[in-house]
Write a structure and sequence with these properties.
The complex is a heterodimer of chains A (120) and B (881). Chain A is α+β, with helices and mostly antiparallel strands. Chain A contains four helices and three strands. Chain A has one domain: Orthogonal Bundle (Arc Repressor Mutant, subunit A), CATH 1.10.10. In chain A, helix 1 packs across helix 3. The relative contact order of chain A is 0.14. Chain B folds into four domains: 61 residues; 179 residues, no CATH class; 312 residues, no CATH class; 191 residues, no CATH class. In chain B, strands 1, 2, 3, 4, 5, 6, 7, 8, 9, 10, 11 and 12 form a twelve-stranded mixed sheet that branches. A six-stranded mixed barrel of chain B has the order 15-16-21-18-20-19. In chain B, helix 11 crosses helix 14, helix 15 runs antiparallel to helix 21 and helix 21 packs parallel to helix 24. The chains are: A alpha+beta (120), B alpha+beta (881). Chains A and B meet through helix 1, helix 3 and strand 3 of A and helix 1 and helix 3 of B.
């Protein structure tokens, strides 16, 4: 139980940002869980080590909220089925919202840091 | 909560997703050049533990639904245990109300809502005749039993119904083969197709055949209870004869155990036509009940219209006879339940009121509690709990109380239902009263409804933005948040709840008062004769043995002589029946000295009675003019009759009836009027009817005799000696209906006593709940206004003034409730109007006494908190502020 709560704590910290990153990834087109994880890892130059333990719960949470939908489809290059996720219209709206909130927070933090730098 | 199958599908889906992605990872590792055995491990390392991941994924959705609910449940249970006084009280109130409601609904379900155990019971209807005219419908729409000739004509000449059958009651003497005691049983005469029409097969043997249904058909069907009781369950009785009224009847079959139609008293059945070929031709003897089965393709209205048309024809062909003009029908289930339908519905309304009051009381208690928990709620809200969540938590608490109370109540209702069925004599026994699935569903619905009613209002009020904001602003205070300003909304809510409670209680009290008064009026009705220390019993001389007037008179006179000689007997009377015991049969008459009746006017009708010479003096019915019968009035010579006072006033206004004659249809002769006696009532609650008395010593063997014995002391003590005497005179003659006059009148009061006492019980309970509620609110107000009272007293207010202040504050909602309740009662009493006897629905005495009682009880409930308020030490009060 304690390990689960620790993982949940970590997930809680990343929750808002991870959701936003997943939505952003899906903006460019449908992808399955593995692809999404690899994409985030690649585009952040391996900075954000993708914990699959946070990714899959996040995907299901987003699906529950109705921001993404899933479908089992056959991959074009492999002869197997994967669960592909797509962004919904609500999800797109949510992404815009999250992005603007993120921008505000970044600006606020930057201002604090710059004034602190001036003072110091 | 999603069903388990869906959850498992979801789990499988997650597993599949993780597996497919893991396989992909493995493939990519291999493509990167990692050797195959290594690839798996590398993939797992890169991916992570799939089991752990699937657990974490699953936690996303299960956490939201089920675990939230379980957590709320745990919190609710803990909170309720923390305040045991409140919880126990609330659970008790709920248990009482839900238990009573479930009990009554069980009865209603069994009696009115469950289909009868017959084949296609919803297609069965009873058909009655209906007399037009206001005097016939004075007591309400009349459903008159059918005359045999009418029934036979309907059956032969109309085709709207699949089939029709008929039956009637008759009381034969059943005598034993081997010296068993003789017994008068209630029997039914049923047409041969009655049992197939209802869909009843004999348990042993068979039912009647068509050829057996004629005046000499000496066959009989036993009911299961008689079969067990008298014949020991020995199936060899089938085929052997039993003796009814001295004649042998062959037993052709035994009916099944569950068949108790029309009531549990009917012990055996003979064929319908046994009444005699002469009677079967009459259109004016109304004693049969007709059951009809609808065709699947014909509706009731069109089938009935054929019968109506025929009946009207019969009426026009028999204008001077009491032949009905119309027919009326009702469903079989309504027919069986007609005595209990109205009181049952009234009782259900009363218990509904009590349930409402109970829920309001619990709501009141919860509002009081929420005052103490306001801080907790404010903190929760500040930590981000949504209002819906807080409301849900409080609703779950009220649901827990309601479920605990409901389950206790349902268990209690099992016992209560048994008691109720034991006390309520009129319940049709065709259905066994027991709880079933529907009752359980309704009980659950009641529990949820009560939880919602009791919990929603307090929850909404305590989580309103205003309530929380006011609490948060005083978050630093150490005192409980009971300031005057912060809980104004709460006080208003409690006062409103209390007003509604009191209004409902007033309605119940008034209904109870009216029913009680009506019952008392019924009980103290004068039936016109002495009722103390009078024992009655019935016997029926079988025609086979007593086949001449001389033999009949011999038995009757000897019996009277011997009974009068017994010690302790003051007087004895013999007649066809006694006052208060029922209708007893009627007769048509004309008055030869008066002008002929115009054609088309109905013939006058009177109650038919026989009486011995000392009947009137024994029963203390005064003689108004003329004389009583003497022992010279015997064997039909001379033909004499005594009339009742009402008959004289109605048919001989302003003239002397003595010496004039009555032409009786039964006797087909003229009888000279020799006396006029005071009116008697044939049944309490019914208006008087004109009565004709004929001499018992006329020697006619009427259907039954009633012996009434007035004793010096306890009437029942003489019952066994008299029965022994009868057995001495004729060992084969059974007596039945051994009852005192008091018991007869009690019986005829029917349910009036039970309904009145039950409604009174509910009303008293509601009054108790309302006064406890009032006490609670006023105590609460006192604590609230402690500061204000302290200031007032410091400024010089006397204790008396403070008491008056608090009393007025507490009595105000009581007063509003009273006014509201009185207004509502004016409408509500119309519902019970038909159950009232000798009592106006808007009886001012009852209304006034209920108002006085309520104000007195309210004042009492307010007194203690008001007194406590007066004893507040102003210094203490100001300090706590």
């Amino acid at each position: 139980m304690s390990s689960m709560s620790k993982t949940q704590e970590r997930a809680a910290l990343l929750q808002g940002t991870l959701d936003m990153l997943v939505l952003r990834t899906l903006l460019y087109g449908p992808a399955h869980g593995h692809q999404i994880g690899k994409h985030i890892q690649r585009t952040t130059n391996d900075f954000l080590q993708m914990q699959h333990g946070s990714l899959y719960p996040a995907l299901h949470r987003l699906e529950q909220k109705g921001w993404i939908v899933s479908k089992w489809e056959v991959a074009p290059d492999r002869n197997r089925e994967f669960k592909y996720y797509r962004l919904t219209a609500r999800g797109k709206k949510q992404l815009v919202l999250e992005q603007s909130k993120w921008k505000q927070m970044v600006e606020a933090v930057a201002r604090v840091l710059s004034t602190a730098a001036e003072e110091s | 909560m999603k069903p388990w199958r869906q959850l498992r599908k979801r789990d499988a889906d997650v597993e599949r997703e993780l597996q497919s992605d893991l396989d992909l990872e493995e493939e990519e590792q291999r493509e990167r050049g990692v050797p195959p055995q290594e690839a798996r491990h590398a993939a797992l390392r890169a991916f992570g533990n799939p089991t752990l991941i699937s657990e974490q994924t699953r936690a996303v959705w299960t956490w939201n639904a089920l675990e939230n609910f379980l957590r709320d449940l745990r919190i609710g249970i803990r909170t309720l245990f923390r305040s045991p006084g409140f919880s126990v009280l609330a659970v008790l109130v709920m248990a009482l109300c839900i238990g009573a409601a479930t009990s009554l609904f069980t009865v209603m379900r069994s009696v009115l809502l469950r289909p009868l155990p017959f084949r296609d019971p919803d297609r069965l209807v009873m058909i009655y005749e209906h007399f037009r005219g206001p005097e016939n419908n004075a007591q309400g729409f009349n459903y008159t039993p059918v005359a045999p000739a009418d029934y036979l004509d309907w059956r032969a000449q109309t085709h709207g119904f699949e089939d029709m059958a008929a039956w009637y009651y008759f009381p034969p003497n059943l005598t034993g083969e081997h010296g068993e005691l003789p017994e008068m049983v209630q029997a039914g005469g049923g047409s041969w197709n009655l049992f197939p029409l209802l869909g009843v097969n004999a348990a042993i043997g068979r039912t009647f055949t068509e050829s057996e249904d004629h005046p000499d058909g000496d066959v009989v069907l036993l009911t299961w209870s008689l079969f067990q009781r008298r014949f020991g369950g020995d199936s060899s009785i089938v085929g052997r004869p039993i003796h009814l009224n001295g004649k042998p009847y062959a037993v052709v079959g035994v009916l099944p155990r569950w068949f108790t139609y029309p009531d549990a008293e009917v012990q055996l059945w003979v064929p319908y036509a046994r009444i005699g070929s002469e009677v079967l031709t009459h259109h004016e003897y109304h004693f049969s009940r007709v059951v009809a089965r609808l065709r699947p393709d014909v509706n009731l209205a069109s089938a009935l219209s054929q019968v109506e048309a025929l009946q009207y024809q019969l009426h026009m062909q028999n204008l001077h006879a009491p032949v009905a003009e119309d027919v009326a029908s009702r469903t079989l289930i309504d027919d069986l339940a007609q005595d209990v339908k109205k009181p049952l519905i009234i009782l259900l309304c009363a218990v509904g009121c009590m349930l409402l009051i109970g829920c309001l009381n619990v709501a009141n208690l919860m509002v009081a509690r929420s005052a103490a928990r306001q801080k907790e709620i404010a903190i929760c809200s500040a930590l981000g709990a949504k209002r819906i969540t807080l409301i849900r938590i409080q609703l779950i608490e009220s649901l827990l109380i309601s479920m605990a109370g409901g389950i206790t109540g349902v268990v209690l209702s099992l016992a209560a239902t048994k008691w109720l069925v034991g006390r309520w004599k009129d319940l049709p026994p065709v259905q066994n009263v027991h709880p079933d699935g529907v009752v359980l569903v309704v009980a659950c619905a009641l529990i949820f409804g009560a939880a919602l009613l009791a919990g929603l209002l307090p929850a909404i009020s305590s989580t309103s933005k205003r309530a929380i904001a006011e609490t948060s602003s005083r978050a630093s205070s150490l005192t409980p948040c009971l300031t005057a300003a912060g809980s104004q909304a709460r006080t208003a809510l409690r006062k409103t709840l209390l007003t509604v409670e009191i209004a409902t209680t007033v309605v119940l009290l008034i209904a109870a008062g009216l029913l009680l008064k009506s019952f008392w009026r019924l009980r103290t009705t004068d039936v016109g004769c002495v009722t103390d220390n009078v024992l009655t019993m019935h016997y029926s001389l079988p025609g086979k043995k007593y086949d001449s007037p001389a033999k009949v008179n011999a038995f009757n006179e000897t019996l009277l002589e011997r009974v009068r000689a017994m010690p302790g007997v003051r007087a004895a009377a013999l007649g066809s029946t006694v006052p208060g015991a029922g209708y007893g049969g009627d007769d048509l008459f004309t008055i030869p000295e008066h002008p002929r009746l115009a054609p088309g006017t109905p013939q006058p009708e009177a109650l038919f009675r026989t009486a011995d010479p000392e009947y009137f003096s024994a029963l203390q019915i005064p003689l108004l003019s003329g004389r009583f019968f003497t022992s010279a009035d015997r064997n039909g010579r001379p033909k004499t009759v005594i009339i009742s006072d009402q008959l004289m006033r109605q048919y001989f206004p302003g003239e002397n009836p003595l010496g004039q004659h009555i032409h009786s249809m039964r006797g087909s002769a003229d009888y000279e009027i020799v006396g006029v006696v005071a009116d008697t009532r044939y049944l309490v609650g019914q208006p008087d009817k004109v009565t004709l008395y004929f001499p018992v010593l006329g020697g006619e063997n009427t259907a039954g005799m009633a012996l009434a014995v007035r004793t010096a002391a306890d009437a029942l003590s003489i019952s066994i000696p008299i029965q022994k005497l009868v057995a001495e005179l004729d060992p084969q003659l059974p007596v039945s209906h051994v009852l005192t006059m008091q018991q007869i009148i009690e019986q005829s009061l029917g349910n009036a006593s039970l309904s009145a006492s039950l409604v009174l019980g509910f009303a008293v309970m509601s009054l108790l709940l309302a006064s406890v509620g009032l006490y609670g609110v006023l105590s609460y107000l006192t604590i609230q206004r402690t500061g204000e009272i302290g200031v007032r007293m410091a400024l010089g207010a006397q204790r008396g003034a403070v008491v008056r202040l608090m009393l007025v504050d507490g009595l105000r909602p009581a007063f509003y409730g009273l006014v509201l309740g009185l207004a509502a009662s004016v409408g509500a009493v119309r519902l019970i109007q038909s159950m009232l006897y000798g009592t106006k629905p808007l009886d001012p005495a009852i209304f006034a006494s209920v108002a006085a009682t309520l104000l007195a009880v309210a004042a009492l409930a307010c007194l203690v908190p008001a007194w406590k308020a007066a004893r507040i030490d102003p210094m203490q009060a100001l300090r706590t502020e």
